[in-house]
Design goal:
With 114 residues, the protein is an all-alpha fold. Helix content is 55%, strand content 0%.
Length: 114
């Protein structure tokens, strides 16, 4: 699991090459996206992100995330760009068929979940 830092991704690629399968940390991705939004818009976007990531197939999740990015692009282009950046890497656990608690965001309270 990586947080999106280029140095970490490069190190993984340097060591494992094409064998590497990385999952983008959804909590970091969610925080990055929500940081581009006013407080009042965060709960809806958070819910849509989590619902998309919970979809049973990569195609469904990707379609929902693309739709969310398109809807954000009109009024919140920074949030849309953040969502699109590394989007495929947020779906690795879906692609691998991982279920259970691993792919779910933490229930821990953060400044974004209040």
């Amino acid at each position: 699991m990586v947080d999106g830092g280029r140095a970490i991704a490069k190190a993984v690629d340097d060591v494992y090459g094409t064998l590497a399968v990385t999952q983008r940390c959804r909590i970091h991705k969610e925080r990055n996206i929500l940081d581009h939004l006013p407080e009042g818009e965060r709960p809806l976007v958070r819910r849509k992100l989590r619902q998309a990531w919970a979809k049973p197939t990569v195609a469904e999740a990707h379609a929902d995330l693309d739709a969310l990015a398109r809807s954000l692009a009109r009024r919140r282009p920074g949030a849309a760009a953040s969502l699109r950046e590394g989007l495929d890497d947020t779906l690795t656990v879906n692609r691998l068929g991982v279920t259970g608690t691993l792919p779910r965001p933490s229930r821990q309270r953060t400044r974004w979940s209040r």
